[in-house]
Amino acid sequence: MFLFAMAFGTLWWMMYAWRTPENLAETRFTEPDGTQGLFFSLLVPARHEQAVLAHTVGRLLESRYSDYEVLVIVGHDDPGTTAVAQEVAARHPERVRVVVDTHEVKSKPKALNTALPYCRGEVVGVFDAEDQVHPSLLGHVDHAFRSTDVAVVQGGVQLINFTSSWYSLRNCMEYFFWFRSRLHLHARHGFIPLGGNTVFVRSRVLRDIGGWDPDCLAEDCDLGVRLSSAGARVVVAYDADMVTREETPDSLYGLLKQRTRWNQGFLQVYRKREWTRLPTLNQRLLARWTLGNPFLQAFAGLVIPLGIALALLAEVPVGIALISFAPLLPALVTVAFEAVGLHDFGVQYGMRVRSWHYVKLVLGSPFYQMVLSAAAMRAVWREMRGQHGWELTHHVGAHLNEPDIRVPCEVRSEG
Amino acid sequence: MNVASTVLDIAKRPPKPAVPRRPGRSPTWLGPVAVLLPTLAVLAVQAVNIGGWPIANDDEGTYLSQAWAVQHGHGLAHYTYWYDHPPLGWLQIAMMSWLPGLFASSAHVLTASLRVVMLPVTAASCLLLYLLARRLGLPRWAGSLAVLLFGLSPLSVSLQREVLLDNFAVLWILAAMVLCASPRRDLWQHTAAGVAAGVAVLSKETIIVLLPALALLLWQRSHPSTRKFSLAGAASGFTLILALYPLYALLKNELLPGHGHVSLWGGLKFQMSRAGGGSLLSPGSANRQMLDSWLYYDKVLLLGGLVAALLLLARRPMRPIALAVALLALTAIRPGYLPSMFVIQALPFLALALAGVAERVVTLVQRAVTPVGRVMPAARQPLRLAAVALVGLLATGLVAPHWYHGDRIAVTAHANDGYDRAAQWLRTHISDPAHAQVAVDDVLWMDLVRDGLRPGIGAIWFYKLDLDPAVAGLLPHGWQDLDYIVSSPTVRQPSNTRLTTVQTALAHSTVVASFGSGTDLIEIRQIVTLPATEGP
Question: TM segments (chain B) (predicted)?
Fold first, then answer.
């Protein structure tokens, strides 16, 4: 029954955006009015990413927005990336600056905190070194800030290389449902674990709250929780034309490490208990559920194989056996919705989804769940043993070969 | 805290746009009254003399006995459950079985007095039908009219009183349609519609022919931007609920035929291969006789509703309803097996189609008088009311005499006298119920169990003597172990001549009491045992 509730709850929240046509319409950016108001400081922390950094900053410089600066943050022990960053900065001295992070032990939040004092903008935006950012994004974000007067705008991030491997397909779908749907639910209910990039915060608010937590493995989630607890309003906007495109981890082990880090970060945020200061019980329950999810997932990972073994090996009455299948029902509905999501994904991104991909999506489901459960168990294990080291995700640029952002939105945003 | 002060004062989420209230909207109590009054009228007519008319039906006895078995922990049936129908219908009866205890009297045979469980089913169907009418865009008065047509037709009164699985299927398919037509276009309501449709099919499998109508309604009522998800939600809800049935069979190792056990496949094969009743169009065929018996009860709803549905195929909002009628009509016309209760599934849609056409007629008449209203504004409202009244009068004049006659029989006739008295005779004349063995049809079975006979082996469904090896095994001397066999119209059906044990028992018995006459005759026959030396 617990597993049923868990699977059902996850399904319910996953489908938030598609629940009604009105919900879906609300999840888009509203069209900008053509004027510009805010100055942006865009932070790009880069570590051992000389392969993709120049391209990423290049994309940022193609923005149609005029009032912004780019701060590339590099480590003092990373000459390769530093060289690429400085070369770009030399070519665009009016836009790009390089900030060197000298912390002995490096982490993304430390790098971001290092750069925060140098930000001149009214809004700080964060991008990853491998991001492909749409030229019209800043205009839309500016409009979102000015028309709603919120503290944070979270843009969509989408893994795009769904053909790379069996797990990349599922990973892409996971992002699709998270940014397309679930985050909107969080924003509406006033508790949101922010995403790691394409997130924009008013500098004043960010400084008031003390920047990022340097020791947290999920500094983005932590920031979101602290801002939510302080009552900050967040809007999330997902627009297929405007999302930041990323790639999946390049190996299954990489995915496992990345997910372990996130899960461990969630556990850390949970243990900081900042979320207990959320004003309403519903928000606190949502926080408890979301942050405790690694625990729940680890538990499910242990119990489900046990249950299957019991159902197959032990003689149980038919009624009990039928009930033991109950958690499977929402799980199967989830798979059905994921298949439709994959179709939607293909339509929105103009990519050809073949029937083979649907088969892979369905067949991969249990194995992907096993990877997630393993990562959750690993996170719980590492957290209990006090291992807080940062395991970096490597990027090879697999998403850069995918078809480029389509034209229609450009026509629209200028019209 | 500083941050709180800077961001807390930011305006809250903008309120949802309220549904605009039209000026001059009628008062809020009108809706509830428009649905409750006709529902109460239907309930009143259906409740009075519910145990007396129509004559208790063997199928009612079957479902009630099986519900009794569920309720008393004997599994899905008191004999081996053989997948003749999915069990969800009598599972629902079992869930409501506390109800008859509150109302049942000993005046009637138990099967007939247990019909009380159908009243909440009818009430819920009436409410859902009204809601569906409203969601399809019909005005309140047309919704009320649909409820009255649905519940007061003599055909409805007799069939909806009976404990039949089709009535449950109708309830759930109406729920599915109401959910599909939700003005919120909510994904979960659409998914729930699929679940409700699955429950409908598991209540009575024949309702599955309505799926295309349901799909059309969902297609029309979902929004293009979320339609894909709505369809996937409804389809997976439906499929998964339906899949529980084969899963149950699989877990019991009864999915496929095998030696020494029943199977779902075998049950399906039996239902699919039942002897066809001939074409509706050829006079004298079994199906034609069935149709004639339906038409005997009510021509208005059947023929009028059919014509109305054909007319409404042209109107987009009502098209799913028209399609539902068309699908059921086509199924009935094909020469295959046609169960006598099949028409139940068409009743709500026929009623809705008639109400839909009535609404069109009134609208057209109102439009026709509009020019007059323009010239004399004071006459506009009276003219409109007069139009409704005229249509109402015409319709009532057409329907009322016919229906009054049929419904009067329903509330006064005593069709179950024979069964009532047979049950009473058995109660008073079986001296040692704990050891008695009596073969009866399904209608009388519940009474015998109530009187203390052992379920299944003391109180025996007559055809199990020949068809269930488990029962034969418990009677070492075959028919000679019986004390009585009750010969009722069901037992005397021509198809039962192949039941040799039953026929032998009938041949070796004498009538000790008889009730009624003609085809309704019920005889209680005592078995005359032969001297032991003769052997079997």
Answer: 29-48, 88-105, 112-132, 138-157, 164-184, 196-219, 231-251, 294-314, 321-337, 343-362, 383-404
